[in-house]
Amino acid sequence: MEGPIKMTLLIACLLILLQQGESASFFRPETARLSLLDSNTISQSVIDAEYAVRGPILDRAMELEADLAAGVDLPFDEIVSCNIGNPQALQQAPLSYVRDVLAMVLRPPLMEA
C-alpha cells in the first residue's frame, strides 16, 4: 500500500475515533497498519453508538404523511426526509471521497485505471 494513501486512511480512522471521544494515545506510528482497528481493538463506545431517528419533527412528518395518504388537501404533495442523512433526496451529489480512498486502499489496481 502506498504511503500517502495509507496515511490518509489512518488519519480518517483517527478523526472518527476522536469525534467519538477517544484519546489519541492509542495511535503510535510503529503500530500504524491497516489492521489497527478490528473487533478486538475498537473502542466499546464506538460499538455501542446508536443513531436513533426520533423526536417531534419526525412525529409531525409522520402525521403529515398519514394526512397525505388519507387525501387531506395540503400545500405540498410529498414529505422529503432530510433528517436522516440522505442529501441525495434533494439532488445533492453523493460525497464519495472517503469511499473512493477506501476502495483504492483495498484494491490498489483501481489506481492504475
Automatic annotation (TrEMBL):
Assembly and binders: Homodimer.
Protein's UniProt name: Aminotransferase class I/classII domain-containing protein
Native source species: Heterosigma akashiwo (Chromophytic alga)
Cofactor needs: pyridoxal 5'-phosphate
Signal recorded as keyword: yes
Gene3D superfamilies noted in UniProt: Aspartate Aminotransferase, domain 1
InterPro entries with a match to the protein in the record: ALAT1/2-like, PyrdxlP-dep_Trfase_small
Annotated keywords: Aminotransferase, Pyridoxal phosphate, Signal, Transferase
Superkingdom of source: Eukaryota
Gene Ontology MF: a single term: L-alanine:2-oxoglutarate aminotransferase activity
Signal sequence bounds: 1-23
